[in-house]
Amino acid sequence: METRWFHAALAAATLVGCGDEPCPIGSIRAVDGLCYLFEADTGQRPPAPVQGLVVDLDADIRARVLPTSPLPALPASPSNRVADDPGAAALGEALFFEPRFSRSGQLSCASCHEPERFYGDGKRVAFGEELYPRNTGSLVNVAYYNWVLWDGGCDTIWCQANQPLENRHEMNADRMGVVHILASDAGLRSSYEMVFGALPDLSDTERFPEHARPDHLDPEGALNLDWEAMTSNDQVLVNTAFANVAKALEAYQRTLVSTESPYDTFVAGLAEEDAVQMSALSPAAQRGLVLFFGEAGCTRCHSGAHFASDQFVNVGLDTRSWLLYEDNGRFEAIEDLYEDTFVASGDYSDDREWGIQKLDGLEQTETMQAAFRVPTLRNLTHTAPYMHGGHFDTLAEVLGHYNRLEETTFEGVRDPRLAPLALSDAALGDLEAFLRSLSTEAAPRGRRR
Question: Which fold has domain 262-329+369-436?
């Protein structure tokens, strides 16, 4: 028999919808506050009954919870003048799914940032043209980060967007080849020129070889030699177009925003004293919320509506067999921020002064050894494995690490603020239930899907 749910008779629904009277016999009150009939022979169950707030939230915890939802408007990206341009986002989406940019012609940005996996890949570490020994971070809500990449080695999304294109472990392409593809593809060229203006004339292959890029790892290789043979003016023309590719990719990634989780529904209900909305969190998740904002001290790092922060923390991890070399995290990344061609303080920025101010006072310190960005906790159920090296396959394993802190720290020194949580198994279960409530059901959908 087909499963059928019926609203109770309109008069009855109107009578009991506010919860003043019990539901009629044979029906049950659901999370929307109305009564539903139930056909017992189907084995189906109605939505969970309204339980409202079942924990004691003191004034201090309420004051911490309420500002964490909803997510605010996206922060501006001053160094990218087309960051919120719809035409740039449309171009960026086309570039995001373009495999011809990779050396093999088989890989696009979407190969590692799969829309169906919340723009991650579900693997411990990335594998592009070669193994890349870091976990692929989700791009959902990436625009809320102040520093991009696990080590914060980029100060904007557009700074980061070009790196996988030329990284030999990832797409292993070259900027000259990318710009040639843009110029030779009528659709891409038209979309590009509508946003950025005319591309340079690349028909003179003496000036603009088919492939070229700066390559300090292989200075005697053909790619680097062909790049150095170009005039500085021609290099600037190519770099400008390559930077614009990255800016379009940023414009697209800024559209990948996810805001409607059970937690967000709960906070809206808390603000309005709405029992139906507060029922979006199970009793276990509500108990976990109290731990998260209270005894467990999680908000020292995971704060605000993004449940992240600009901090870089050494959390005391040992290495793993699939991690091929030492990774100094933030310590080495500081050098990248001062040396990269495409940072916000560089020549291809649309607001160099903003970029310079962002770097003001930033310098290497020993506490940065093997310190990595505090990631968002939103959408955790979709983004396993966890940590910068895919160290843990499950949330339970992550919580177990923080509960005991028994691993030998492979590099650097564990942040002294970290102490074992020493929670019971039941409390850890509640904390995990809360973390799961920060996830939305489906990833943001672009125009192609």
Answer: Cytochrome Bc1 Complex; Chain D, domain 2 (1.10.760)
Which token pair is 206?
A: 């003496």
pTM for the complete prediction?
Answer: 0.89
The tokens of 278 are what? 């507060």
Q: Give the type of residue at 115.
A: P
Whose CA is closest to 395, among 382, 407, 410, 405? 382
The helix/strand count (H/E) of the chain reads as 17, 6
Token pair in block for residue 79: 């160094």
pLDDT tens, position by position, 222-244? 999 999 999 999 999 999 999 99
Element (H, E) at 93: helix 86-96
**Conformational region of residue 273, where left means phi above 0, alpha means psi within -120 to 50, and beta covers everything else:** left
Q: How far is 434 from 156, CA to CA, in rounded Å? A: 30
How many C-beta atoms lie closer than 10 Å to residue 204's C-beta?
A: 10
**pLDDT per position as a tens digit, 85-129:** 999 999 999 999 999 999 999 999 999 999 999 999 999 999 999
Domain range 86-253, CATH architecture: Orthogonal Bundle (1.10)
Say how far apart CA 371 and CA 379 lie, in whole Å: 23
